[in-house]
């Protein structure tokens, strides 16, 4: 009886990732080099001596946490390598690591002599691209490391932003948001790298064009451990025209952070007194406070709150 079942249409994955870049042999059987007669390893899993594997010169990751490596090594000694590393063959008894450097380094610490590995075909540009994409797919990357990897994929691998988005499974807007981080001043970039501020903080700071103002808000963020929402409010205050109640004699010279704090103080005074408050200050920290009242009773109410009567 004929099978009338329709083939299942599987939804295409968003990102091509590493899989699309790795050229596997269709069969795990060994291959023979026709020119030399040499038996070459298959594209399947092979057990390869650690001494024959070189590290990836295109590896964008330069720092490996020693404690985390030791933990992985301890796990390997008990469980073995669950996920094989990936290498490419350079010549007889010489391979180059494509992905899995943590597993490679931890295997050495664990005292292994060989590791399971996939042998792939890849040129230098593909090596770089695969190393960068694998790096991006790590869970513990900070936003700046991702931004630098995106930039390298665009410049060194000659990808367009749409192609990059396909590779890493992100839309163009997300990719562009990361790339914009590279326009921030070095001090703020260092803060992202050292995880002093989050991607959310950084995205808010990007919208401040003046570097001095960016740095002023950045320093305040660190000193007062401001949330992303508070930083966004600071930035928003810079882009809004100051209200009459918070005018200054020289607006251009008033520090943006001070202007924001002045507005917050005015709000607190108004809330405390239950009345509209006008608070003015100039760049020399001189100013005045005005508290309007609607009647004698209103004045007495304000004076009582101020504990004057």
TrEMBL record:
One of its GO terms (molecular function) is DNA binding. GO terms for cellular component: chromosome. Pfam families: HTH_ParB, ParB_C, ParB_N. Residues 1-35 are annotated as: Disordered. InterPro entries: Chromosome_partition/occlusion (IPR050336), HTH_ParB/Spo0J (IPR041468), ParB/RepB/Spo0J (IPR004437), ParB/Sulfiredoxin_sf (IPR036086), ParB_dimer_C (IPR057240), ParB_N (IPR003115). Keywords: Chromosome partition, DNA-binding. The keyword DNA-binding applies. Coiled coil: none annotated. SMART domains: ParB (SM00470). Residues 46-136 form the ParB-like N-terminal domain. One of its GO terms (biological process) is chromosome segregation. Belongs to the ParB family. This is Chromosome partitioning protein ParB.
């Amino acid at each position: 009886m004929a099978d009338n079942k329709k083939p299942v249409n599987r939804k295409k994955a968003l990102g091509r990732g590493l899989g699309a870049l790795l050229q596997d042999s269709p069969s795990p059987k060994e291959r023979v080099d026709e020119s030399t007669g040499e038996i070459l390893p298959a594209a399947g899993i092979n057990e390869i001596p650690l001494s024959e594997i070189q590290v990836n010169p295109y590896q964008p990751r330069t720092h490996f946490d020693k404690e985390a490596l030791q933990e992985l090594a301890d796990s390997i000694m008990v469980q073995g390598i669950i996920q094989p590393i990936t290498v490419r063959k350079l010549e007889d008894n010489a391979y180059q690591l494509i992905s899995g450097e943590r597993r490679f380094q931890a295997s050495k610490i664990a005292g292994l002599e060989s590791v399971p590995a996939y042998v792939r075909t890849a040129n230098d540009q593909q090596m770089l691209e695969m190393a960068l994409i694998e790096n991006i797919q790590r869970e513990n990357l900070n936003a700046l490391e991702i931004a630098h990897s995106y930039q390298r994929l665009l410049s060194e691998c000659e990808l367009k932003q749409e192609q990059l988005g396909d590779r890493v499974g992100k839309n163009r807007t997300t990719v562009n948001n990361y790339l914009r981080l590279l326009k921030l001043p070095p001090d703020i970039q260092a803060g992202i790298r050292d995880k002093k501020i989050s991607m959310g903080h950084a995205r808010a700071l990007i919208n401040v064009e003046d570097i001095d103002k960016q740095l002023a808000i950045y320093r305040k963020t660190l000193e007062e451990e401001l949330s992303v929402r508070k930083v966004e409010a600071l930035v928003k205050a810079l882009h809004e025209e100051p209200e009459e109640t918070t005018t200054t004699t020289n607006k251009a010279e008033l520090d943006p952070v001070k202007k924001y704090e002045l507005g917050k103080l005015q709000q607190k005074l108004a809330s405390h007194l239950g009345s509209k408050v006008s608070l003015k200050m100039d760049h020399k920290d001189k100013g005045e406070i005005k508290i309007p009242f609607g009647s004698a009773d209103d004045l007495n109410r304000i004076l009582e709150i101020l504990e004057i009567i």
